[in-house]
């Protein structure tokens, strides 16, 4: 969530910079009677925020969709082949997660160790617990 907010703030700043740059260029051309050919640096000031703005848009969306597709494929393969996938949790986190009274402590510790958000750490712990439960009680 934080990355998304930062991305949108960067895009808003680029749009504001573009508008300000256009105002400065118009003011300079009127003030000094500049020709467009005499002001290549001013044109560079216009195109820099545009390029930055366009560079921010597609990368993250493409990367996120590719990551989701890869995760779905991996989940389907591991489920079909009945392959045990490592949980990615430390032994201490796994021990805490197995105790229902220590679930919050496990989330806090995993969050600290893996530098995740609270929601991401909770999802990891719940996924681990579901995997354990499915091994104990297969359908």
Describe the structure.
By secondary structure, this protein is mostly helical. The chain has 2 domains: 81 residues; 54 residues. 81% of the residues lie in helices and 0% in strands. The protein contains 5 helices and no strands. The two termini are 36 Å apart. The model has no long low-confidence stretch (mean pLDDT 75).
Element-by-element helix/strand order: HHHHH
Mean pLDDT: 75
The secondary structure category is mainly alpha
What Rg do the Cα atoms give?
25 Å
Question: N-to-C terminal Cα separation, in Å?
Answer: 36 Å
Helix content: over 70%
Number of strands: 0
Treating each run of at least 4 consecutive H or I residues as one helix, how many helices? 5
How much of the polypeptide forms β-strand, as a percent range? under 5%
List unreliable stretches of 5+ residues: none
Largest sheet: none
Q: Domain count, please report it.
A: 2
Backbone shape = elongated
Write the layout of secondary structure elements.
Layout: H1 2-32, H2 40-81, H3 91-98, H4 103-114, H5 118-136
Helix pairs in contact: 1-2, 3-4, 4-5
Give a nutshell description of this structure.
With 139 residues, the protein is mainly alpha-helical. It contains 5 helices and no strands.
What descriptive keywords fit this protein?
139 residues, mainly alpha, 5 helices
């Amino acid at each position: 969530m934080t990355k998304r907010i930062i991305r949108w703030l960067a895009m808003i700043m680029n749009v504001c910079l573009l508008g300000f740059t256009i105002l400065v260029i118009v003011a300079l051309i009127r003030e000094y009677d500049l020709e467009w050919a005499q002001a290549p640096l001013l044109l560079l000031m216009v195109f820099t925020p545009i390029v930055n703005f366009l560079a921010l848009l597609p990368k993250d969306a493409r990367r996120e969709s590719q990551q989701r597709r890869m995760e779905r494929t991996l989940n389907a393969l591991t489920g079909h082949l009945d392959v045990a996938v490592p949980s990615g949790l430390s032994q201490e986190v796994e021990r805490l997660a197995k105790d229902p009274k220590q679930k919050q402590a496990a989330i806090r510790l995993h969050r600290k160790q893996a530098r995740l958000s609270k929601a991401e750490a909770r999802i990891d712990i719940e996924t681990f617990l579901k995997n354990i439960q499915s091994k104990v009680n297969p359908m």
